[in-house]
Every structure is written in structure tokens, then in C-alpha cells.
User: Fold these one by one.
Assistant:
Number 1:
Amino acid sequence: MRRTAMLLGLAAIIVSAQAVAAALPYLFERLRDPAYNAGFTALFRGQHHLAPWLRGYLRDRNGVDTPGRTVAGGRYELYAVCEPHNCAGNFLYALFVPGGRKAWAMLTRDGRIERFFGAPGPYQRALLVAAAKE
């Protein structure tokens, strides 16, 4: 009886955690929030030689977004967008602290890491790299 109650409690926690993760919007929707938009935009300020599709996404949010999710026990929100009509390995992964005040990003090209934005530390880099391997 006690074991069953514990398992049911654990299942409820897992389901509610999944529901929270599923509740995050797509990146283009999240960027409607001024704090997230400011953190995201700052990543690319003064950056040169951006992929054309990424320049387009920065301008008009034209990309193939996936819903965001929490990572690292809810300490970060992770979002991904890929190049329209060429998703195979051409992604931008954006990592935010909840509330959007700080952000980092990683761009991949043909499945390889092309560059990082926002000077992520080792832990944030590891989260972004892990996202690209999923």
C-alpha cells in the first residue's frame, strides 16, 4: 500500500513536470515578451557573417520553431529553431534563464557547431551541445 502511494506520487510529479515543460511556447511566441526579446536581440548585436536564414529569423521570425522546454531542473528554458526548408542540422538553440534577462545561443550548420553567442560558460555550453545531440 505504501509503495503504491509512493509510486502514484512519483507519477504525479513526473506528469506535472512534463506538463510544465509542454506549457512553454515556441521561440517566436516567447520573443513577444520584451525581456526575452531584449536578451535574445542582444546576443546578435554587432555580430557579423550571420547565416542568411538566421538574419531573416532575427528580422521576421521566419523559421521552423519547436516548443520550448525546461532543462537543468527548471533553471533554464531551451528553445530551438531551424532553417526553413533545410532543417537537417541547421539550428539555432537558445537558452534563457526564466524571465529572459540572460540568454545564450548556439548555431549549428550541417550538424556541426558553427558558433556560440552570448559567451556561454561551460555549463551553458554543455546544455546547448546536449540539445543538438537529441
Number 2:
Amino acid sequence: MGAARYITLGASLPALGPVLAAKVVPINRARLDARLRGALRPADLRQLDAVRGLLSWPSLQHHADDAAALAAARRAMDAVASPDIRDFLRDRMELRTLVAALRRRAAGEGPPPPDMAWGFGRYLRRMRANWSDPAFGVGRAFPFAARAAQALGTGNSAGMERIVLEAAWAQADRRAAAHSFDLETIVFYVARWELLDRWTRYDAQAAEARFADLLDKTATEASR
């Protein structure tokens, strides 16, 4: 009965991607949410809501500082029962940590001190030790890191946005390929839908202003 629920829901959802070629999402948010809430059990919805909250940049930016945001991220991950979904969320948080490092360095900031809560995951020590390297010494884990650094360094915010979005899409796509007819399939679908929705709403001028604002904030924090 459990698998049938996911099969029926999955079959009702339109195909996604490729992300950067999309002009509109194939299903709007209201219809997607209605299908999810009509098909999933309360326990599944709680996990999905935790995932969506963590994947949303604004939800993390509501916190006063990096330490509070990281604590909220860990609470969200603790609310997820599936090891594969937790691993996916870890991957996404590590991607965000790389983006945060790129922003800090572009603003002229040096490596964060070891006792500073600024990022998440397995690569913090390596990134601090290789701060001057274009890819922070994690080029094998993040093959796009040097390209992202170059884009940010030349003020190409649109290029930076595309690189990060493609990387996030690939993370979700890899996870989705290993699942079928289960909650993970639905979660990874929603994760990709959120990226697709973000891309179809993308505005290059707004992105430039957003990145400039982020850099200004980073520089201000570094001077305190």
C-alpha cells in the first residue's frame, strides 16, 4: 500500500528539466502542493516540510547569524528519517558553504578562524587550509569550484548563478536516479522543482544586485 501511494503520486507529476532550458515550471506551486498534501501521510509531509525549509535560502537568512542558521539546519536534518535524504541535505549545505567561502574571499576576507561557525560539512578544515587556492583544495568534490570563483571574481553574477544552480541540480538528480516508488523519489523531485522554479523566476539584474548586497554584508561582517 505504501509503494502504491508513491507510484500514484509520482505518475501524476510532470517530468522536469533540463533546468537551464526551462522557461516555466511544468506544474505550479499550488497544484504541486495540493497533490503532495493529498497523497502523502502526515509523517512524510513533516519530513518533506523540513527538507523544503532547509532548501530555502530565505529560511536560513532569517536567522541572526551563521551559528543560528547552522543550528536550524541541523534541527531540520534531525527531523528527517531517511539516511539518503539526510545525505542529500548535507551535500546541499556543503555546496552553500562553498558559496559562502567564495563570497567571503571575494570580499577580501581571509580564512575563518577554527572556532568560527561559518559553514557546514566535511571540508571546512581543508577549505581554511587552502583559502588561496581557486577551488579551496576541494576541486575533486566540487569540480566547478574554480569556474565559480572566476565568475564571481569578474563580476559575472549570472554565470555564478548558473554554475551553482547546475551543481545543485546535479546533486538532486544523482540521488533521484537511485530511487523509485518511495518517499525519496518524491523529495528529490520537489528539490529539483524548487530549483526549476528559482531558475524560471531568475532575473539577471536582480542577481547582480543580490550578489553585490551579499558581498557588502560579508565585508561589513568581516570589519567588525
